Amino acid sequence: MGLKGVFFVIFIGVSVLSLRAQELTEERSDEDLIIDSFFETDEEQEVENLLQTLFKEQKDLNDLIENFSDFRFLYLSFNYNSDTYFAGRDIGINDYNVRPQITYLNSHGFFAGISGAYYKQLEPKWDFTSLSVGYGKSFGKNNAFRFSGSYTRFIYSLTDSNPYTNSVSIGLNLRNKKRTLGTRVSLTESFGSDANFQITTSLYGMISLLDKDRYRLQLRPRAYVFMGQQLAYYETDETEILPDENGEDQEYIVFKEKQIFDLMNFQINIPILFTTEKWDVELGFNRNFPFEVGDESDQRNTNFINISIGYLLEL
């Protein structure tokens, strides 16, 4: 097993052992148990945090169950990233991007959303619009596990700009009783005129900095490991003679290309989240540690700042 494989195994092991240690020492309230059964994805978890604040003063369990038996919400969010990278790599877009999104959620586990991506340096600047639908369900003791699946359709401003126009994702989430620590594994197959498979594993936590009746302040660190298919280039022992820009013959090393599946990036996200009954604001610092693929030798670590604003609308 190579260094990348060892890193991946250690990351998974730490995630599971940390959760197990937390389970042995913590208890969860009835309110937490009800709310915890509905949420898993990043957008859903932001809504969960808003609902925790909204229902903080509601002590009667029967009233709480009645409120949650048939809820429907729209979550409107606007996300800003100070720089643009692919799997932690610099792709020549040295400027910000923004992603507005509207997400619908209900108490039966169904969710749907529409979002888009705007890149300042691209032409056209609006890169794509995406439409998503999905379903999630909790299970196991205390609903500690949650499974979800979703389908996304991408509509690009330039029709032939990207070979991946569809994606199907499944995910499994495990959280401790207090929801202060969790881990998630997601499998995504993107397809269209080409296909690509990805695995994302994450470990996330929550540290309460301020907890009042009508607002909360939390530190929510996250760590991601991204694995995916990539076209890699390898140096061979072969050479070929080609004319340079001046028309003179030069000897060049021949590279071969190969489609591989490998570790691509390790990312740390450290956000501070402020939540009221309807609004949430997040400010985060991100650090990418891209893994070298093929004969890559010049990958550098990258940083960016993320800011998001969300609003919860009850239907």
Give a nutshell description of this structure:
This protein is an alpha+beta fold and 315 residues long. The protein contains 4 helices and 16 strands.
Q: How many structural domains are formed by the residues?
A: 1
How would you name the CATH homologous superfamily?
monomeric porin ompg
From the 3D structure, determine the CATH topology. Answer: Porin
In this structure, how is the largest beta sheet organized?
A: 12 strands, antiparallel, barrel
The residue ranges in which pLDDT falls below 50 over 5 or more consecutive positions are 21-39, 57-65
Number of strands: 16
Q: What value does the average pLDDT take?
A: 78
Write the element-wise H/E pattern from the N-terminal end onward.
Answer: HHHHEEEEEEEEEEEEEEEE
Strand order of the largest sheet: 1-4-5-6-7-8-9-10-13-14-15-16
Distance between the termini: 52 Å
